[in-house]
């Protein structure tokens, strides 16, 4: 096999209570990437459609992730990468993660799968480090594994995949403003109250329990964030109105997707997710703010192979 | 029914990662209590064996918890309570919780079960408030519900019961020193780093996932505490040696039981729990420190009725 074409999905990190540890894989939003073996021992980004991103390997997240993989798994050949970006950079649904995870996934396939998907996370994290200054895994893990992932620990890396309940659907609205992950991180306080932390880890426990027991009510009650949302929410236009809008439509809960500015809601059933989408759209229509909106099931497997030869 | 005799179990709160939210119910360590209906509309503590505790209703945790229940559920009669304490006060395995939970459980039975056990938690918490100054639920919840409990939220109270994996056993060693919960709380810092908090909620998520998937390794890896243990561990004689001792015997993990001074280990299988007990005993034998040690399965149902008529 010398050629592979993949779909690399968008992801929602944090999920309110799980800052830096939880992530969810979307099903119908994502980039396409093709990767080809080449004789020359190098990584080359030949084309990026849909976004103005650097082609230079060391400055491109997919390039850096690929180099991290090949630094460990030596070959005497190289790879050419083409990317069609559908996930907007800075949207908060794992644009850089899709590129980084996609590149190492595709190369691993072309190498004959020396690594399990879980083991690719640490290479993809190097792409995230380039993008945001922090080698976080909460987007690349769900992109590579699908479902909902928990990064229990970074040192050593310990990632748990949790299957999403079948009826869970996500609505994501992306106001067309750009918010850089690095900026969104810089507003965070480095110390928090023990009381808020206790509330937060109670909710992480509740959310995980809700996933395993398919208790949608518990999932919804656990989607709370006392730590990051009160600060980052201020950077997102109409944030409180979006939350109220989806709540009135019966969404289980809502919050900031990753570091924003996208806002997500989780719902039980497609119809509720659709109603949440209408209500959230109305908020931005009223504000005359351009936006994109997605309604998606939870992708159970992560990156998909579209073609190979 | 005018009389009931119950077994009210000891409990391990916090479980390392889950400060103030997680708790576990022990099976073979606990108090006995008898409660009788009396004509007079009052709560009377008639006898306490095995501990020097106040008989005055308003100063006794079981009295205060009973009053909280009867404040809401009015009767024209009262109750007499006798307690045989086997759980030492200040041991860190929920001595006050056993008394508070036991009293409201027994009275609820004699009233004809107007409340579900889960609804009794808030009354029992009033006993905890008397004992430690804080109306926490992480001991009374597992005592009343059994298994492992997660207090997701205090306002509103939202408690999730998780069944413990069958092969999980606890070892608890209690050095014969007294450490008051209120004192153990006062040493805690009220602000923590965001980084440590993230580690902690990653572990809570991992622990809960490990319970549902019966992944004993994950349960063990998640039994970590970067926040409370480094501070409270200093108050417990030989704490680091105890941790190493049970680890060398293959325990999954260990930590401070509640606010200490008891130290617990969780193991897969009774034999490992027994080996952990021997190794932990040896530490205190070497230090010539008197101790009590318990090996227990996880009590799936909480408080047990021994007799009623």
UniProtKB/TrEMBL annotation, chains A, B:
Subcellular location: Cytoplasm
Kinase among keywords: yes
Residues in GHMP kinase N-terminal domain copies: 65-147
Biological process terms in GO annotation: threonine biosynthetic process
Domain spans labelled GHMP kinase C-terminal: 209-285
Keyword terms of this UniProt record: Amino-acid biosynthesis, ATP-binding, Cytoplasm, Kinase, Nucleotide-binding, Threonine biosynthesis, Transferase
GO MF, one example: ATP binding
Associated pathway: Amino-acid biosynthesis; L-threonine biosynthesis; L-threonine from L-aspartate: step 4/5
Reactions catalysed: L-homoserine + ATP = O-phospho-L-homoserine + ADP + H(+)
One Pfam family hit: GHMP_kinases_C
Known EC number: 2.7.1.39
Family per record: Belongs to the GHMP kinase family. Homoserine kinase subfamily.
NCBIfam families, sorted: PRK01212.1-4, thrB
Protein's job: Catalyzes the ATP-dependent phosphorylation of L-homoserine to L-homoserine phosphate.
Name the record gives this protein: Homoserine kinase
Lineage of the organism: Bacteria, Pseudomonadati, Bacteroidota, Flavobacteriia, Flavobacteriales
């Amino acid at each position: 096999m010398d050629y592979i074409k993949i779909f690399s999905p968008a992801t929602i990190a944090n999920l309110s209570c799980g800052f830096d540890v939880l992530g969810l894989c979307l099903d119908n939003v994502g980039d396409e990437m093709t990767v080809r073996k080449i004789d020359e021992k190098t990584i080359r980004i030949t084309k990026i459609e849909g976004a103005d991103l650097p082609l230079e390997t060391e400055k491109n997240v997919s390039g850096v992730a690929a180099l991290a993989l090949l630094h460990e798994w030596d070959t005497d050949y190289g790879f050419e990468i083409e990317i069609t970006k559908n996930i907007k950079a800075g949207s908060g649904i794992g644009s850089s993660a899709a590129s980084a995870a996609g590149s190492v996934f595709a190369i691993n396939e072309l190498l004959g799968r020396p690594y399990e998907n879980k083991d690719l996370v640490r290479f993809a994290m190097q792409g995230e480090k380039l993008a945001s200054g922090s080698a976080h895994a909460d987007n690349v893990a769900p992109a590579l594994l699908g479902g909902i992932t928990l990064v229990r620990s970074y040192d050593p890396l310990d990632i748990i995949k949790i299957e999403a309940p079948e009826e869970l659907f996500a609505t994501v609205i992306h106001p067309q403003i750009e918010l850089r992950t690095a900026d969104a991180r810089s507003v965070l306080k480095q110390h928090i109250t023990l009381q808020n932390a206790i509330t937060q880890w109670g909710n992480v426990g509740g959310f995980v329990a809700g996933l395993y027991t398919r208790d949608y009510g518990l999932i919804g009650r656990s989607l709370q964030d006392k730590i990051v949302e009160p600060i980052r929410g201020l950077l997102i236009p109409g944030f409180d109105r979006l939350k109220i809008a989806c709540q009135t439509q019966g969404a289980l809960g809502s919050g900031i997707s990753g570091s924003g500015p996208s806002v997500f809601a989780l719902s039980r059933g497609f119809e509720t997710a659709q109603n949440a989408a209408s209500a959230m759209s109305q908020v931005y229509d009223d504000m005359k703010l351009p936006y994109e909106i997605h309604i998606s099931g939870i992708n159970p497997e992560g990156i998909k192979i579209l073609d190979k030869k």
